[in-house]
Specification:
CATH topology of the largest domain: Aldehyde Dehydrogenase, Chain A, domain 1
CATH architecture of the largest domain: 3-Layer(aba) Sandwich
Strand order of the largest sheet: 4-3-11-10-9-12-13
Helix content: 25-40%
CATH superfamily of the largest domain: Aldehyde Dehydrogenase, Chain A, domain 1
Pfam family, one: LuxC
Protein name: Long-chain-fatty-acyl-CoA reductase
InterPro entries: Ald_DH/histidinol_DH, CoA_reduct_LuxC
GO molecular function, one term: acyl-CoA dehydrogenase activity
Keywords: NADP
Largest sheet: 7 strands, mixed
Mean pLDDT: 92
CATH class of the largest domain: Alpha Beta
Number of domains: 2
Length: 498
C-alpha cells in the first residue's frame, strides 16, 4: 500500500470557492459534470457530479466481480482496515480536515462535537474491535468458509455467509454512521454504494478518498462507491433499485423516505430499515435515597440527554422517575430536574454543547408550558441552551415527540405499571437506574417494544459496541446472504425415489 500524501493539492478542489463533493466509484475519483446542491439548512452550497451521467457504471452489474474479495482471508481484510485506521488520523489527513471543516456548516451538531467524533475515527479500526464485530455479528467461521452442521435427518448442511451488492442510504446526524457502514461492508465482503446525506456529504467521501490513496486497486477499495444524489429522485432510483443491480437497500431515514423506498422492493431486493427511534429513561425510587445518590443519578441522566446534543436515537427524551406523585414526590422531581439541568450544563464540550440551532417550534412549545405552572415546571431554556421540563402530573408533555436540542421531560410516577405502557415499537434505548430495576424489566419491556436496555448514563457511550445488534435486529446478518449446501447420503437419508 502506498503512503498518503497530505499536501494541500490533495484536498478536494473548489470552483469559485464552492467545495466539491467528489464521487468515488470503486477506486475512481470523479469530479466532472458538476451540479450545484444546497446543503441541509442552507448553510453550505456544494458541487457534486451528476449521478445520471454515471448511472450505468454505479451498480456492480456482474456479481462475479466480488470474487476478488474471496481471494482474501479475513486477516487480509483486517490488515487493510487497521492500516486504514492509521491513515484516518485527522491531524495527518487532508481529506478528513476538509470534511471536518465543511461539516461545521452542514452537520446538526457543533464544532467541538464534530472534532471529537473525527478524533475517534481510528478507534473503530482497532484489530480486536474489528474481530469482535466479525465474530459476534456473524461468526468468523461463516465468513471464512463453509461450516458443516449435522441434521437429525442424517443430512449435512454446509453454511456460509456471502456478501451482497447493496445501497446504503446513511443518516447524517453522526459521521460514525458512514464509518460503520464502510467497516461492515468490508467484513462482509460486500459491494457498497453509499448515498451520502445532505447534512454530511463529506465524511464517507473523505474515507473513500483515503482508501483510494492507500491502494486504488485493493479489492476492499474497489467495492466501495460514494455518491450524492437528491433523495426521492425517481429517475435515478427506479434505475438503480433493481435486483439486477443491487440485492439490499439499507436505509437510515425518516418515515417518509423509508416509505418512498418500499415502492421499489420486490423479489430479489430486500429493504433493511434502520429508521429513527425514540428513547426513554426509567429511574427507580432508589435514586432519591439521599442527596449524593440523587446528584450521581442526575449526572448520569444529563449525559443520556445531552450527549451529541440529543441528536441520536439513543438519547433520552422522556424520563419516568418513581419519585411519587403527591406533593412531596413532585417536589423531589422538581429538585431532581434542577440537578439534571445543572449537570447537563457542566458536561464536557466533547460530549455536549449549547445546541447549534435550537428548534424554533420547540422553543415556542417550551415557552408555552412555562406559563402553565400548575402542570409543568420548566428549568432553563431561556437562552436556547436546552431545558428540563418537569411534569407536575404523571403525564408527558403534548409535544414529547418533538423533544430535541437538549430538552427533556421528567414525568413523576408512583409505580412501574405507569411506565410500561409508554414503551412501544418506536422505543429504542431505555436507560435504567438502578441495575436491579433493569434486571427486573428486561423480560417485560421487550414485549411492549423496547429494543435496548442500558445502565443509566451509558446510552450513547455504549452505542455501537454491542457487536452488531441494533433496533432489535442483527443488521449485519441481514446484510449478508446465508447460503446452504446440503449433502445427503442415500445410505443415511431415505431418498424420495425409493
Amino acid at each position: 500500500m502506498t503512503a498518503i500524501s497530505t499536501q494541500p493539492d490533495d484536498i478536494e478542489k473548489t470552483t469559485s470557492d464552492t467545495p466539491i463533493a467528489s464521487m468515488v466509484i470503486r477506486g475512481r475519483v470523479i469530479e466532472s459534470n458538476l451540479i450545484r446542491i444546497e446543503g441541509r439548512g442552507g448553510d453550505l452550497t456544494f458541487l457534486t457530479p451528476d449521478v445520471r451521467q454515471v448511472l450505468g457504471s454505479l451498480p456492480l452489474k456482474d456479481p462475479a466481480a466480488l470474487k476478488d474479495l474471496y481471494r482474501l482471508t479475513l486477516d487480509d481484510i483486517l490488515d487493510y482496515l487497521v492500516s486504514l485506521g492509521e491513515h484516518l488520523r485527522v491531524e495527518n489527513n487532508a481529506h478528513l480536515q476538509q470534511a471536518r471543516a465543511l461539516s461545521y456548516m452542514t452537520a446538526p451538531t457543533t464544532p467541538p462535537l464534530i472534532d471529537h467524533t473525527y478524533e475517534r475515527l481510528p478507534a473503530f479500526f482497532e484489530r480486536d474491535r474489528l474481530f469482535e464485530l466479525a465474530e459476534q455479528a456473524i461468526g468468523v467461521e461463516y465468513l471464512e468458509g463453509w461450516v458443516p452442521r449435522g441434521l437429525l435427518s442424517g443430512a449435512t448442511a454446509n453454511i456460509r455467509c456471502f456478501g451482497a451488492r447493496a445501497v446504503h442510504i446513511v443518516a447524517g446526524n453522526n459521521p460514525i454512521i458512514s464509518v460503520m457502514t464502510i467497516v461492515r461492508n468490508a467484513l462482509l465482503r460486500s459491494d457498497a454504494i453509499i448515498k451520502a446525506p445532505s447534512n454530511d456529504p463529506f465524511t464517507a467521501l473523505a474515507v473513500a478518498r483515503t482508501m483510494v490513496d492507500m491502494d486504488a486497486t485493493h479489492p476492499v477499495t474497489k467495492h466501495l462507491s460514494v455518491a450524492y444524489w437528491k433523495g426521492g429522485d425517481g429517475e435515478i432510483e427506479a434505475e438503480l433499485y433493481k435486483p439486477a443491480n443491487v440485492e439490499k437497500v439499507v436505509a437510515w431515514g425518516g418515515l417518509a423516505s423509508v416509505k418512498h423506498i418500499t415502492q421499489y422492493v420486490q423479489p430479489g431486493l430486500e429493504l433493511i430499515s434502520l429508521d429513527p427511534k425514540r428513547s426513554v429513561s426509567i429511574i427507580g425510587v432508589q435514586a432519591f435515597a439521599d442527596d449524593e445518590t440523587m446528584r450521581e443519578v442526575a449526572v448520569r441522566l444529563a449525559t443520556d440527554i445531552g450527549a451529541v446534543n440529543q441528536q441520536g436515537c439513543v438519547n433520552a427524551r422522556v424520563v419516568y422517575v418513581m419519585s411519587g406523585t403527591d406533593a412531596a414526590g413532585v417536589g423531589r422531581a422538581n429538585l431532581f430536574g434542577q440537578l439534571v439541568y445543572d449537570a447537563m450544563l457542566q458536561l464536557p464540550t466533547r460530549t455536549s454543547t449549547k445546541p447549534k440551532r435550537y428548534d424554533r417550534s420547540l422553543r415556542e412549545s417550551v415557552d408555552s408550558v412555562r406559563m402553565q405552572d400548575d402542570w409543568y415546571h420548566v428549568v432553563g431554556g431561556r437562552d436556547d441552551e436546552g431545558a428540563i421540563i418537569v411534569s407536575q402530573l404523571p403525564e408527558p408533555v403534548p409535544f414529547a415527540l418533538e423533544l430535541t436540542d437538549r430538552t427533556a421531560n421528567i414525568v413523576p410516577v408512583d409505580t412501574i405499571d405507569e411506565i410500561v405502557g409508554a414503551v412501544n415499537a418506536w422505543t429504542q434505548t431505555v436507560g435504567v437506574y438502578p441495575e436491579e430495576l433493569k434486571t427486573s424489566l428486561r423480560d417485560v419491556l421487550p414485549l411492549y417494544g423496547a429494543q435496548r436496555l442500558v445502565s443509566l448514563g451509558y446510552a450513547a457511550a455504549s452505542a455501537g459496541s454491542n457487536a452488531g445488534r441494533q433496533d432489535a435486529i442483527e443488521p449485519m446478518r441481514r446484510m449478508g446472504k446465508w447460503i446452504v449446501d446440503e449433502a445427503a447420503d442415500p445410505e443415511l437419508v431415505p431418498p424420495l425415489w425409493q
